[in-house]
Amino acid sequence: EAEVAQSPRYKITEKSQAVAFWCDPISGHATLYWYRQILGQGPELLVQFQDESVVDDSQLPKDRFSAERLKGVDSTLKIQPAELGDSAMYLCASSFGLMNTEAFFGQGTRLTVV
Amino acid sequence: QKEVEQNSGPLSVPEGAIASLNCTYSDRGSQSFFWYRQYSGKSPELIMSIYSNGDKEDGRFTAQLNKASQYVSLLIRDSQPSDSATYLCAASGGAGSYQLTFGKGTKLSVIP
Fold first, then answer.
1. CB pairs A-B closer than 8 Å
2. A-chain residues within 8 Å CB-CB of B58?
3. How far apart are the first and last CA of chain A?
4. Of A92, B31, B39, B68, whose CB is crowded by the most CB atoms within 10 A?
């Protein structure tokens, strides 16, 4: 069964260090989303790609976060430097297109910043 | 900023009862609506999508959409303890945005 792949599953990092997450969407899915979910809250959109282009990054803290999807397939989300408040679940999702299509999530990366 | 509102709960129902989960959205131009189920420590799992006014049924789940009232609901019939989870409502489209925006979720507990 097709699924969104994410790695690593868990990451512990010290504050001020750099950390990166990887996502491989379902084959053929042009739209890719990165979300952050703090315990007890709903997922918050960080960045959305259509192929290799950024469609929405209005809520991405650009002073420390960056995201890329160079070939329009897999994607990397980076945090540098990490802060204690970045501890959260980072979720990647993909969908076939931008409108009226269902989005499917990967298993997520649980980040703990110490 | 598009918003999706849900009652955080917890909502407790006895096993076998109907659970009713509700959601409102702020962007009248939103076109697509989704319900996800999320077990503790896991990622969200899509259970229903709905795009037009009315009801959509899939097994024990029924999604209802009323665009005039900007209201979406999810009914779970014959609730089972395995349905205990947080249910997330999401909306996309509208106002020139393709964002898929989530509510904070409603925690459902089904009591055996």
1. 63
2. none
3. 36
4. A92
Whether residue B46 and residue A104 make contact (CB cut-off 8 A), yes or no, is: yes
Amino acid at B88: L
Residue type, B45: E
Residue in B48, B77, B53 with CA at minimum distance from that of residue B63: B48
Rg of chain B over CA atoms, in angstroms? 13
Tell me if B94 sits within 8 A of B31, measured CB to CB: yes
For chain A, state the CA radius of gyration. 13
Q: Give the minimum alpha-carbon distance from B94 to chain A in angstroms, rounded to a whole number.
A: 10
Token pair of B79, please? 């609730």
State whether B32 and A99 contact (CB < 8 Å). Answer: yes
Q: Which of A91, A99, A104 sits opposite B98 (nearest CB)?
A: A99
For chain A, the average pLDDT equals: 96
- Residue B5 in contact with residue B21, Cβ under 8 Å? no
Tokens 């792949």 map to which residue? A5
Q: Report d(CA A91, CA A109) in Å as an integer.
A: 7
Both tokens of B4, joined, read 């999706």
The pLDDT averaged over each successive group of 10 residues in chain B (112 residues) is 88 98 95 97 97 97 97 98 98 83 97 96
pLDDT at A63 over 90: yes
- pLDDT tier, A100 (very low <50, low <70, confident <90, very high otherwise): confident
Of residues B37, B17, B19, the one with CA closest to residue B73: B19
Per the structure block, which two tokens stand in for A43?
Answer: 């997922």
